[in-house]
Amino acid sequence: MSALKAGSPFPEGVSFSYIAPTPETSSVTACGIPQKLDASKEFKNKKVVLVAVPGAFTPTCQANHLSAYIEKLDKLKAAGVDLIIFIAYNDPFVMAAWGKANGIVDDKIIFASDDNIAFSSSIGWTMEGTGRTARYALVIDNGTVTYAEKEAAKGVDVSGVDAVLAKL
């Protein structure tokens, strides 16, 4: 598989690991049980914003990326977004804790692991030599990619919420 671009179908066989939010797992110290999110299936009938970051709790990802998406959740939903997913190389336990530490204890944003950076590697969007996902954003509308941009540097110019909102 190669890098995705607008007009491409979202690939088959893509899954991520995540811990579904429940009242029992709402505490940041509650672990939960990881499960698979069949992205290929889930994305067929929804408008999805998928954001990849190099790592949970890292400075740019926390301060400039996730916080802006949380601030503009209502605008994303008003633009017809059904599902917002943040992925990183981190395991699903760390990703779940990142969400809970930011006050997301429901399914407003799903925090998932790109297990072994399999998906990001398959599209060629990783941080070379680090074993981490690159910073990028995809919009998938009913199984078709309508926006796909990878950051060239450490900023959030093309993967930040404002860039994504402008393309919805």
Automatic annotation (TrEMBL):
Pfam name, any one: Redoxin
Alphabetical keyword list: Antioxidant, Oxidoreductase, Peroxidase, Redox-active center
Cited PROSITE patterns: THIOREDOXIN_2
InterPro entries: PRX5-like, Redoxin, Thioredoxin-like_sf, Thioredoxin_domain
GO cellular component, one term: peroxisome
MF GO annotations: thioredoxin peroxidase activity
Active site, UniProt feature: C61 (cysteine sulfenic acid (-soh) intermediate)
Keyword check for ATP-binding: no
Gene Ontology biological process terms, A to Z: cell redox homeostasis; cellular response to oxidative stress; hydrogen peroxide catabolic process
Residue stretches making up the Thioredoxin domain: 4-168
Role description: Thiol-specific peroxidase that catalyzes the reduction of hydrogen peroxide and organic hydroperoxides to water and alcohols, respectively. Plays a role in cell protection against oxidative stress by detoxifying peroxides.
Record-stated family: Belongs to the peroxiredoxin family. Prx5 subfamily.
Entry protein name: Thioredoxin peroxidase
Species the sequence originates in: Neoarthrinium moseri
